[in-house]
Each structure stands twice: as C-alpha cells, then as structure tokens.
Amino acid sequence: xxxxxxxxxxxxxxxxxxxxxxxxxxxxxxxxxxxxxxxxxxxxxxxxxxxxxxxxxxxxxxxxxxxxxxxxxxxxxxxxxxxxxxxxxxxxxxxxxxxxxxxxxxxxxxxxxxxxxxxxxxxxxxxxxxxxxxxxxxxxxxxxxxxxxxxxxxxxxxxxxxxxxxxxxxxxxxxxxxxxxxxxxxxxxxxxxxxxxxxxxxxxxxxxxxxxxxxxxxxxxxxxxxxxxxxxxxxxxxxxxxxxxxxxxxxxxxxxxxxxxxxxxxxxxxxxxxxxxxxxxxxxxxxxxxxxxxxxxxxxxxxxxxxxxxxxxxxxxxxxxxxxxxxxxxxxxxxxxxxxxxxxxxxxxxxxxxxxxxxxxxxxxxxxxxxxxxxxxxxxxxxxxxxxxxxxxxxxxxxxxxxxxxxxxxxxxxxxxxxxxxxxxxxxxxxxxxxxxxxxxxxxxxxxxxxxxxxxxxxxxxxxxxxxxxxxxxxxxxxxxxxxxxxxxxxxxxxxxxxxxxxxxxxxxxxxxxxxxxxxxxxxxxxxxxxxxxxxxxxxxxxxxxxxxxxxxxxxxxxxxxxxxxxxxxxxxxxxxxxxxxxxxxxxxxxxxxxxxxxxxxxxxxxxxxxxxxxxxxxxxxxxxxxxxxxxxxxxxxxxxxxxxxx
Length: 647
Prior knowledge:
This protein has helices at 18-46, 56-66, 70-79, 92-96, 136-146, 179-188, 204-217, 238-247, 262-269, 281-287, 291-305, 323-339, 357-377, 388-408, 413-434, 439-460, 464-467, 476-493, 501-506, 511-530, 539-552, 558-576, 585-601, 609-645, and strands at residues 49-55, 82-91, 103-106, 124-130, 151-155, 158-166, 174-177, 192-195, 221-224, 251-254, 273-278, 309-311, 343-344. The protein folds into 3 domains: 11-44 and 352-645, no CATH class; 49-100 and 178-344, Alpha-Beta Barrel (TIM Barrel), CATH 3.20.20.370; 101-177, no CATH class. Strands 1, 2, 7, 8, 9, 10, 11, 12 and 13 form a 9-stranded mixed β-sheet that branches. It has a 4-stranded antiparallel β-sheet with strand order 3-4-6-5. The chain contains 24 helices and 13 strands. Helix 13 (357-377) runs antiparallel to helix 16 (439-460). By secondary structure, it is α/β, with parallel strands linked by helices. 57% of the residues lie in helices and 11% in strands. InterPro entries: DUF5693. Pfam families: DUF5693 (PF18949). The chain crosses the membrane at residues 20-38, 358-379, 391-409, 442-462, 468-489, 510-529, 586-607, 613-634. Keywords: Membrane, Transmembrane, Transmembrane helix.
C-alpha cells in the first residue's frame, strides 16, 4: 500500500500517488462484488443437504450374501445415513440373466404352449409368462406406450408380448423397469433415482410417454440418471425435458461422464439439475484405491465441488463378506459429512438467479484498474506521469468501456475473467516483489490484490449456469500462462534482469540460460495442462494431497505453497544479496505461479466461495511458512559465512 507520509512525516496527498487509485478502485470493486455475491453465498449456505444413494441391486446382493432380508438391511443402512436407491431399467441382457418375473427369449425357443403369431421370424424377441402374473399390469402399458409395434398374444394361460425387433438387436436396449426395486422403494417410502436406458427404435416422444406413465404409478421417482452411452431418445430430447420440467423431476448429472446427449438434456431442464458423484469398479481397480480413499473422494466431491448426490457402492476389491466393510465405510462417510456441517437427506436443486449489474460493474472496474496499473509499469505513454485527475478519468472511462462491451457482446464476458485473472496475478506478483525491504508485507499486499480480483470473478461468474458447469469459464489456462510471461517481459523491459530483451536477442544464447528457460517453460506448460486433470497427477502426490486434506480440511494448492510463495521470498533474498543475477529471474517467474494459482482457485465456480477463501489463505500462510524457513536458513548461512570471512 502506498505510504501516506512524505519526508519528515508530513502528510502527502494520497490521491497523487498512482498506486492509491489502484487500491481505492479495488476496494470499491470488492464492495460491488460482495453485493453481487449475495445470491450465490445465500444459496451455498442453504445447500447443506447431501443425499447418499446406493443401487437396489447392491442392496439385494448384500442382503443375500449376509443372510438377512433387504427390508432389515435397509433399516440398518438408513440409520447410518443412506437415503435413496437407484433403480435401473433392465436391458435385454438383464432379462436374459434372470431377476425379472417374466422370461425373455427368441421366438424359436418358446415352448409350444406359448401362443405367437403365425409365420413369426425365429429371431424375434418375445417376453412371455403366465397370464395371471401381476407384473403384466405395469409391463404391458409401459411396453405398448414405448413400442407401438408390440404385439400381444394370449392363450392356454400364457401371455406373450412380441417385440418389433429381433432378440439380438434388443440385448443392449432398455426394455423393462426393475419393478422389484420400485415396489421396494414404494413400500418403504424411499426416494428413487431411476436409470432409463436407450432402446433401439424408440424416439424421444415414446421415451417421455412411457417414463411419464411409470412416474404416475411410482411417485417415489425423484430424479433421473440416464444410463448407457447415449441418453434415451437422443437426439430428440425435447419431450423428455418437457416431462421432467412438468413433473419438477431433476436430472442427476454424473461428474466426469461423457455420455452423448446428457449436456443437451441438462441445458434443457436447467436449473433442475443435481450433480452426482460415483466411483466405478474400473477406476477403483486401476488405481488400487483403498476404502479410505474412496470415502475421502466422496467427501471431497460434496465439500469441495458442491455435489449433492453421492452414489456409494460396496468395495469389491476385497473378496469375501462385503457387508461389514460397507457398513463401516458408510458410517465413516456419514460422520465425515456431518462433521463438516452437512445434513443427510434428499437434496434440492439450486434456485435460479441472474448476474447482478453490481457484479458486472465490479469486474469491469477491477479489470480497468489492473490494466492501468500494469500499463504504468510497462511505461505506456500518458500513464507514467498522469496526475490524480487523469487517473480518475482513465479508471472511470475504462470501467464504462468494459461494462458496455460485456453488455453489448455477451460472449465477451466469457473472456473477461481470463484477462482479469491474468492481469491481477501479474500485478500481485510484481507488487509483492517490489517489497524487498518488507517481504512479508509485500506478500500480504499481493494477497489483497488476489482476493479483490477473486471476489470480482466469483461474483461475475457466480450464477447457477457456471456453478453447475453448464457454462465453462474460458480463462483458466490464460490465468496460469500469461502471468509468468508478463513478469518476464516486465523484468526485461525495466532492466531488473541484468540484460534487456534486445541485448539477449543480439548475443549468442548461453547454454545455462537455454536450459533454465526450457525447464521453466516446461514446468509452466505442464502445470497448465495438468490443471483439473487428476489423470496426470502421480500416485504419491495424490497420497500427499489426501494427507494435507485430513490435516487442514481444505488442501492448499501445490503451486502456491510448495513453489510460488517460497520462490517469492527466495527471489527477494537473491535480489537483496545480489545472488545469481542471471538466473534469479527463474525465482521471480516462479513467484507468479502462487498468485496465478490463487486467482485460478476462484475460477472453480462449483466450489463454495468460503472454501475457496480458506484454500487461498492456507496456501498463502503455508507457502510463507515454508519460504520463510528457507529465507531465514539462507540468511543465517550468509551471516555465518560473512562472519567467518571477517578479519
């Protein structure tokens, strides 16, 4: 922050200092952002109910394995926090494997007593059973609505439903709902997440009509989680979306699942969306995840990414009796969620609100302020020597231009955050590096700049579309890549590096410089590519992250506390002691990663705002603690060496 005292302690005109305008503008921008954040923060405070669900088939399997009834087992699971069941639509393969009250075979394999139309091809799929089977009362209307070409034949006490497609064609198609699961949920008052599957030859209108019929009979269906590679009825999803909107039934959107059509369906039913997290067997097996890791993944999904439906499955990596482990893990998951202030029940969807004009004004003001501050650092004409009046005009004019641009060209709003984040991280880095006499004060100033920019980003993009990831933030990579480049260009232009850019380009490169530049560039690109991509994170780092998660509840980002902030303090030390003049630029560029990563944290709009603040603060103090230890150790070593060299 600019000093308020002149020489001899006389007060100085505060507004005559260009830095003062930056601080005033950012303080005002933060206030505007705070007002614009109110709907988001209010919604996050209300969204504290998490629903734990399991598959009905897993419930039956565990009950059979343990020798208890599903009813008794459910009572035990419910007491430990389980609140819902997923019930699937059986495919042809599921019917073939049993578990349904009717039989499913090709026409050629039917007993002679079962009536079929004459001349029926032998490969035609047929559902058949005793005519007095109660399941027909649900299955026949459902199938007739879904497949108008279905032919019904009866005689001799038998009833057959002949499908308008061959048996092999329907093996992977969704045919019949699991009535056992739906009836169990009805008897026990259990909310159901129904999983319809795509069916060959059934278009969107038929999917919606049959599903609506099922919802009429089973009001326990509280959400839809499409199964299969393609959403049922795709590409004609309007009828299904209209049905869900009419019944106020949300879509459960599974994280990290690239199902064809699900994003289009979610957009059509928005805001009737419930994020869901689950772990499939393949991922658990390939990563050899422990039971503790599975539970922690579930907790983090709810706590860090605002996921409100958790599909919890038995741990199949162990052979033998699974129920004791499942009960233990369920209790651990429930206790962990309750310890973080969550209630176990059935979650609600986010309310709907729009972007506040105050959020637009705050983000526009912050972008203008950071652009002017960096323009002055880079010596843009008219900024270096501008008086207080001109700075006010520049800020006001820049704010109006940015705000009008966002209003006139809405797509420009997608990129405003990227430039705001990049410029804010650059200015925060340079402001912190300027404080060689007070490095920790410089780190605090940098933190303030980051928090002001982060609040503006969180407010500007803090709407349900972005929180549910229907709209993507387009500036993540820009926020990570641009600050190191701008810091380097600034240092070369202002001769903080021993040579300017022209001098470096005019002489042959040094091998050490090439190696250092390659390492820095590779590290920055790797971090940018790896951002939000856990597949590129090694197993040892995942274990370290989990340890920090348990220790601090909110893990600081590696780029901040292990790289950025230590580099900041070491860069200041190297400058004060005139160490490594040709290579200390690596430390200055490395310092930018701390502030770039901190700003980037606010761009994770699915994370609660309060949690993001805590994550940034944890990265700040942990990084300064580590960097401060290195700083003091080096200072002590330098002092001892200097004392030993003294006569």
